[in-house]
């Protein structure tokens, strides 16, 4: 994840909000929105728009292949 200057130590989903909370070895805590449209944008940016069937299976094996990038 970008935002921490060192490795992420812990990441957990908030139980009552669409947020992922992470804390890093740099002593910071970050809040990451997990709305679907935002997540799709992050995936497309991180994968340079190319999410192959093999990458999909590795990270999203429980879901049918349906990449979000145009």
**Radius of gyration from CA coordinates:** 14 Å
Strand count, sense and closure of the main sheet?
3 strands, antiparallel
Distance linking N and C termini: 23 Å
Structural class: alpha+beta
- Helical proportion, percent range: 25-40%
Indicate the proportion of strand residues: 15-25%
What does this structure look like?
The protein is an alpha+beta fold. The chain has one domain (about 10-60). Helix content is about 25%, strand content about 25%. It has helices at about 35-45, 55-60; strands spanning about 10-15, 20-25, 30-35. A hairpin with a 5-residue loop joins strand 1 and strand 2 (about 20-25). The protein is globular, with a radius of gyration of 14 Å. The chain starts with 7 loop residues before the first strand and ends in an 11-residue tail after the last helix. The mean pLDDT is about 80.
Structure, briefly:
The chain has 70 residues and is of the alpha+beta class.
Keywords:
2 helices; alpha+beta; three-stranded antiparallel β-sheet; 70 residues; 3 strands; single chain; 26% helix
Secondary structure topology:
Blueprint: E1 8-13, E2 19-24, E3 29-33, H1 36-46, H2 53-59
Antiparallel strand pairs: 1-2, 2-3
